[in-house]
Amino acid sequence: MSKFFEQKTILVVDDDSSNRDLVVEVFAQTSISTNILTAANGEKALQILEKKSIDLLILDWEMPVLDGISTLRILKQNADYQHIPVLIYTGVMTETEHLVEAMQLGATDFLRKPTHRLEILARVQSILRQQADFKEKIRLEQENNQLLQQEISSYLAILAHKNQVLATINEKASFPNNSATLVLKEIAESSSQDLEKEEYWNVFLQKFNHLMPNFLTLLNSQVSGLTSSEIKLCTFLRCGLENKNIASLLNISLAGVEKNRYRIRKKMNLQTADSLEKYLFSISK
Questions:
Q1: How far apart are CA 230 and CA 188, in angstroms?
Q2: b/e per residue, 83-100, with b = 16+ CB within 10 A?
Q3: How many CB atoms lie within 10 A of CB 248?
Q4: What is the predicted pLDDT for the residue at 196?
Q5: pLDDT at residue 75 tops 60
Q6: Residues 183, 110 share a domain
Q7: In 3D, which of 162, 190, 187 has the Cα closest to residue 173?
Q8: 30 and 109 co-located in one domain
């Protein structure tokens, strides 16, 4: 027995009861943990989908009330159902153009009747394996993105702290000259020069582009005239940083951050009630 059938719910939609019974029998003999639901037409299938979580649809093309191809259109236009794989199972609409139509509408596979029970199992197993592989890929991508997001946040937090320390050194170095303040001035000047080289920005940008590869391209295409400083601010906001940390990273005051935010909002044509952060988060979706 294939592990891909275990604890799965399959909905068989066919107006011919003998065809429904055949699929039910095939899986009853293969996996006792596979839950098979049946419906005589597309309308009944949609009613079941409102109440049940389905892993796969086996959908006949020719049916009364609501046929299979119309049902497929509805499924793929509904965000709640469009992820469900659909196997079109037909004995009437069997020409190549029918296969092409079904696949263009979003069917995962196409099976002609009559067929052997082993072919039904093989096609269903292939679809469920693809679905499992896709879900695992998404899970790993989300896990990697979370780790990268944490890494970026930690990196920016360290840089913000470094700038805060540098600001403190600069403040102390402003005292009347003595040997200690001269040393502090040298440290401050050296640190400032390192930061001005923007090596920190290049390192951050490499990490950020890996996490959100299209963000900067989309930002620049949707909003014209952003300065390099404003682009940095937008990127930091997209990472969820607070204004005080952004101020430290950009070596500006909180008032400077607010001024830049105002300029960015004007360039984006945002209204008073519109959230800048919400706009930035919508860009990379």
A1: 25
A2: ebbbbbbbbebeeeebbe
A3: 23
A4: 46
A5: yes
A6: no
A7: 187
A8: yes
